[in-house]
Amino acid sequence: MKSIIIGLVIAISGFSYSQNCSYIFLGEVKDFHDGTPIESATIYIKESDKYIISDFDGKFRIENLCSGTLTLTISHIGCETKTVSYTIDNDVFKIISLEHHLEELNEVVVNSHLKTEGTSIEKTINKADLEKYTDKSLGDALNSVSGVSSLNTGNTIVKPMIHGLHSSRLLIINNNVRMFDQEWGDEHAPNIDINSSNKVEVIKGANTLKYGSDAIGGLILIQPKRYVAQDSLFGSTMLSLNSNGRGGNVNSELVKTYKSGFYGRIQASYKQFGDFKAPDYYLTNSGLKNSNASARIGYRTFEKGFDAYYSVVSNEFAILQASHIGNVGDLVAAINSREPRVIEDFSYNIDYPKQNILHHLAKIEAYKRFKNFGKLSVQYDMQINRRKEFDLRRGNLADTPVIDLRLFTNSLQTNLNIDAIDNLKIDTGLLVRYQQNDAVSGTGISPLIPDFQKYDASIYMIGNYDLNESSEISAGARYDFTRIEAEKRYNLTDWNDTYNYDELFPQFETNNIDNSKILTRPEFTFHNISANLGYSKQFNSDISLFVNYGLATRVPNPSELFSDGLHHSAARIETGLLTLNKEIANKFVASLERNNQNFGFSISPYFKAINDYIQLIPVGITTTIRGAFPVWEYNQVNAQIFGIDIDVNKKITNKFNYKGSISLLKGENLSQDIPLIHMPSTNFTNSISYYNDELNQLSINLIHKTVLQQNKFPDYNFYTFNPILQEDVYVDISSTPPAYSLFSFNSSVSFKAFKTGTLKLELNVENLFNTKYNEYLNRQRYFAHELGRNINLKIKINY
Amino acid sequence: MMKNIKSTNTIKLLALLFVSSLAFVGCSSDDDGHHDDHDHEEELITTVRYTLTNGTDIVTLEFQDLDGEGGADGTYDVSGPLTANTTYTGAIKLLNETENPADDITLEVEDEGDDHEFFYTTTISDITISKNDIDEDGNPIGIATTFVTGDAGTGSLIIELIHEPTKPNDGTSINAGGSTDVEVTFPIQVQ
Q: Which of A31, A121, A4, A48 has its CA nearest to residue A532?
């Protein structure tokens, strides 16, 4: 048998040798972007199993070729390996372009941190760290970054905050799609499944202009993984179980990749928790249910490709029952009692009040590279956000939501990246967006946010220029056009008397008056200019300096313009104002960083001056059927926020590492010379970790975090008359809770399993000492304590 | 080795099943249509009317806030003084007068009697108010009352409707917990 095969091989070889074998192949390896020759590229000739190297001019020569197929694999450090094949029937000269571009490098090749922009000031949370938060929210994961905190409603609705700024002052970019999920509400958390992302970047200062003009706080980039073009099928499943809330999360993903560049990924997760527990009691009605799925397919080669992505996030959050209060008297009782008024046994039930949110996101993106020019990409994306909020209601309305909004967003954008010039990279693009908010009827209550349509059009241009080997500057500008057309009914007395809108905006009025309500059509047009300037300098191998200046402009959001009604958990009436103007911020951020495993640091001071900062403040009292209520109105002041974030890492021994960080921040309302509300207080963390690669990658971490009391807060306390007691009672809504320290413990080990797979086990304990505490930035701090101890077990299988 | 490969494949298959089943769950229909009509304030209570009757001696205490929370302030209207040392029959009505005909919210309260309770508090110590109705658990609701006046005096009467109070309770709203749906304070005079 063997001899027959050998004979056959010899016969075939003999046949081929009988052909003309004197052709010459001349090749030239060039950089795709700027056409410069690539020296020392390795060329592997498959047919002869030989290697040759390109010369100084990028050229190489193969002689004595026979007619037939010639297959070459060309590789070079920092380039994507390329395989080409030619049919040889004559002497040939070919130019072979190689990608020589850091941006497109695969993570497999580069382990070091790659920035979105050379001059940006940012922090990254990689997949391994994200997995620690598999059963938590994006906001919880971001909270681990210095300078980032969160505004919470309970423990499940977590809104990220950068440098004290949140909601529409933060841009959240998920898979290159800007999230529009009614982010304006304080108790609306971003609808993102943390398990679908591979990497999260927090950009405190940089050229964020590509994504929007209003990143006054900063930008959060949620990045998908890029797959290596090889034939492979892999996946992972992770199960996480928790003692607190008696629930957990299961997440699975499966990825198929092909050598041709095609890839596909599906992922899904399901999460459920029952009532969480504060150190001494259950938080009745605080559980959640959450199911998510995402799918992506794409094709990626160096020259062209596409990527299609769809995700659905379905969230059901119970809202602490004790936080539903009827009037100021109830609020005073809650503040004074310091324990929730409803404490029941553990349950998985999600009762009213609760939030139901369904978020669909779909996008398709395609790109093509042009030789000696750059890369053009086009993207269309679509989002539907349906939010239903249920409250405690009477009668046949009990199962009807009080808020039912559907926000539909569509965007089409192009980006052109010009990289043909050696030291200069230019990004320019256009965007058009149409947004429609539908206050779905049937709630039996005037909608908090009315029907509106919003049109946006933008153009931007950003340039990055390498001054020399070690320094780089970037500059950019952006123009945005925004038009809002809304339809809302106002109380006639509000329209004519309280806010004087009949004189300010007669053009918005219609003749439709019904039940002492007037139908109006407010329309606004805004023109925004924003700009950015950045500089970075590398001092030696590991120390670098970054300086950034940004001009950001933000249009008032629908909640600031139109909101109108009673907020149950805050016992206040919140009113938007049509007279609000846009917010303009000048921000300076700098960072000095040393990227070194033995001793590294980053010191990052910042200063933001915000003109016409929009905030919600108490302005008076109104008499209602529920008694007297404070009225909070949006107003505009000049504000400034400044502070510093410091991170340090130090290697103690081979196996022990120390990490620490501190964030200091001060926010001032300059117009009234008082502090700004809801500013994060000084906080610091210390962690000591042990890691042993030989002992099944055993990792043990002990983490400490202290949050000091916020002593700078505006005093919005007031007195209200309690008719039952026949006396004035003090409503202390402003005072801040005392400082607290928390300890947590993490450990993990990895084993080999199923031939090529791995099995990872993790045991974590949060709030190790079951500390009882309150956090200033939790909107439910009046009603209940934060969570007590939680023991968490995670099992992850990679296959 | 063969077994390992097999189990790997099984896991992959299971993962696939899991993922696709969830994807189907996620895509459940959500098809409420858009209507141009606006929502009426169905839940609104615009009016609290407490009527005290003793034969032809009828006193009404009324709070009215037609545009709800926000807008114009509510108004109080008391028809006249109460007579000293008299037993009145009290009846409370909650109305939504933005609907035509006005919606009687009292009926909803009565239906969910075990989740609601009216509380009557007065600063005139000679007045006693007792509740004459009970919910399905035998606890008072407070829609029907007996209102007994003593000596002459001036003060106020506070009427509260508490949602999800502790039931039974000691008769005072302060110890009943719950959340307040109605809290109105009438100036009253006994002569």
A: A121
* ipTM of predicted complex: 0.76
User: What pLDDT digit, counting tens, does each position of A647-704 carry?
Assistant: 999 999 999 999 999 999 999 999 999 999 999 999 999 999 999 988 989 999 999 9
Same domain, yes or no: A139 and A156:
yes
- Please tell me if residue A268 touches chain B, with a CB cutoff of 8 Å: yes
Would the CB atoms of A515 and B8 count as touching at under 8 Å? no
Q: What is the pLDDT of residues B58-84, one digit of tens each?
A: 999 999 988 877 777 888 999 999 999
Any idea what DSSP says for residue A782?
A: T
In single-letter form, the type of residue at position A720 comes to T
- pLDDT score at B68: 78
Mean confidence (pLDDT) of chain A = 88
Q: How far is A253 from chain B (nearest CA, A)?
A: 7
Angle among Cα A766, A772, A774 to the nearest 5 degrees reads 100
Q: How many CB atoms lie within 10 A of CB A789?
A: 16
- Confirm or reject contact between B134 and chain A (CB < 8 A): no
Contacting residues of A for B172, CB less than 8 Å apart: 724
Please tell me which residue, A542 or A80, carries the higher pLDDT value.
Answer: A542
- The residue out of A184, A218, A252 marking a domain boundary is A218
Domain membership of residue B39 (yes or no) is no
How many angstroms separate the CA atoms of A433 and A178, rounded? 11
Q: Which residue has the higher pLDDT, A563 or A360?
A: A360
Amino acid at site A325: I
Q: Which residues from chain A sit within 8 angstroms of residue B25, using beta carbons?
A: 291, 293, 314
What token pair was written down for A114?
Answer: 């790659």
Comparing CB atoms, the residue among B26, B98, B181 nearest residue A626 is: B181
Q: How far apart are CA A749 and CA A795, in angstroms?
A: 10
Please judge whether A440 and B177 are an interchain contact, meaning their C-beta atoms are less than 8 angstroms apart: no
Q: Domain for residue A4, yes or no?
A: no
d(CA B36, CA A85): 63
Taking CB atoms and an 8 Å limit, are A291 and B73 in contact across chains? no
Q: Which residues of A touch B185 (CB under 8 A)?
A: 627, 723
pLDDT 10s digits, A298-343: 998 888 999 999 999 999 999 998 888 888 888 888 888 878 988 9
- How many domains does chain B contain in total? 1
Asked if residue A716 lies in contact with residue A699, where contact means CB atoms within 8 angstroms, the answer is no
A110 within a domain of the structure (yes/no): no
Say if residue A93 is in the same domain as residue A140: no
The answer to whether position A107 is within a domain reads no
Arithmetic mean of pLDDT, A238-265: 94
Give tens-digit pLDDT for B107-157: 989 999 999 999 999 999 899 999 999 999 999 999 999 999 999 999 999
A173 to chain B, closest Cα gap in Å = 22
**With contact defined as beta carbons under 8 Å apart, do B32 and B22 qualify?**
no
* Residue A311, domain CATH: 2.40.170.20
Q: What are phi and psi of A119, to 5 degrees?
A: -100, 10
Domain count, chain A: 3
For chain B, say whether A491 makes contact (Cβ under 8 Å): yes
Asked whether residue A14 is domain-assigned, the answer is no
Q: What is the rounded CA–CA span in Å between residue A435 and residue A407?
A: 7
Residues 70-109 of chain B with CB under 8 A from chain A are 70-74, 98, 105, 108-109
Q: Which chain A residues are within 8 Å of B12, Cβ to Cβ?
A: 233, 235, 254, 799
Residue A129 structural domain:
121-218
State the pLDDT confidence band at B18, using cuts at 50, 70 and 90: low
